[in-house]
Amino acid sequence: MPIPAIVSILHRVSGGGLFLLLPFLLFLLDRSLGSPESFETFSAVVGHPLAKLLLLGLLWAYMHHFCAGIRFLLLDMHKGTDLQAARNSSRIVLVVSIALTVIIGVKLW
Fold this sequence. Notes:
- Its main location: membrane.
- The chain crosses the membrane at residues 50-70, 91-108.
- The protein is mostly helical.
- It has four helices and no strands.
- It has helices at 3-32, 36-46, 49-76, 83-108.
- α1 crosses α3 and α1 (3-32) runs parallel beside α4 (83-108).
- The termini are far apart.
């Protein structure tokens, strides 16, 4: 499968996942801000390695969706529509989204 197709599919999957998880994330935010005790409980849960891995995956989904969205906006303006430019921009989206995930993930944890 060509790399632009992979980036496009991941853009759709990450967008759908973010959309479906948004109510759950807002619920967690509401619970964490309810009281100091609930914040401590939330902090303990988020401190678990499995929760950190899940949040890292969510961070990557956001970063990928953001970077691929910028790529698609440029494609809509007919920038980078030839084959080689599309392949290069797809590679850039993958590399930048992973790099941003690592940088932000390290900073957060």
